[in-house]
Design brief:
This protein is α/β, with parallel strands linked by helices and 205 residues long. 51% of the residues lie in helices and 15% in strands. The longest helix is centred in the middle third of the chain and has 55 residues. The chain contains eight helices and seven strands; from the N terminus they run E-H-E-H-E-H-E-H-E-H-E-E-H-H-H. The strands form two sheets. Strands 2-1-3-4-5 form a five-stranded parallel β-sheet, sandwiched between helices.
């Protein structure tokens, strides 16, 4: 049984196919050969297209596959005149007469299911791309904020430093040089007690 997927049917077998598919819960839309198939497919965005239009079906399929909006819609041919050509023009599959209901439904369900999986993958990819873009923007914002914070710290006359749990200096602002005569590079990686007077260390003790 279908989940209500839409199928566009075009060609001489329209009535029989439409009735068959509708009985199994598909939303069936029909088109005639005097209607532009490409425009109809763009407007309806069906899950599957069934073509039963003789020789003109091959050109119709090529037109669908050449269009960005309809190229991913699977196309099934009904009683194609040249079965090998079905795949050459981008068709997904075909069914032959007599149109056995179980066979037609099995092929339709298979391709509708594949299209549904493809759409979910496309949606997931779009979501991932959006998330990556957001994280990239956030990372850029954080880098800018860190740079601004560092610029502010390094412009202060007070000494600002950070140290690890064992007391090793991991960062110190440029102001340190005026106090101890060592550059930040010379201080970083050493224990902070090396730069404190002994009497001050006794008070810290």
């Amino acid at each position: 049984m279908s989940d209500g997927s839409m199928i566009l049917v075009l060609g001489g077998k329209t009535q029989a196919l439409s009735a068959m598919l509708a009985r199994h819960g598909y939303q069936v839309r029909t088109a005639t050969e005097d209607q532009p198939l490409l425009e109809t497919a763009r407007r309806l965005a069906p899950n599957l297209i069934l073509l039963a239009t003789g020789a003109s079906a091959y050109a119709a399929c090529q037109g669908l596959k050449a269009d960005e909006e309809t190229c991913d819609i699977p196309v099934l041919f009904v009683e194609p005149m040249d079965r090998a050509r079905v795949f050459a023009v981008g068709g997904a599959d075909y069914v032959t007469e007599p149109l056995l209901e179980q066979e037609v439904l099995a092929r339709v369900e298979a391709h509708v299911g594949l299209r549904a999986v493809q759409r979910r993958l496309e949606e997931t990819r779009a979501e991932l791309e959006q998330e990556i873009s957001k994280r990239a923007e956030l990372g850029s914002t954080l880098q800018e904020a860190e740079a601004q914070g560092r610029d502010l710290v390094e412009s202060l006359s007070d000494v600002i430093y950070t140290a690890s749990g064992d007391g090793t200096v991991t960062y110190v602002s440029p102001a340190i040089e005026a106090f101890v005569g060592y550059s930040p590079a010379e201080v970083t990686g050493r224990h902070f007690k090396e730069f404190i007077y002994e009497e001050d260390l006794a008070r810290l003790g």
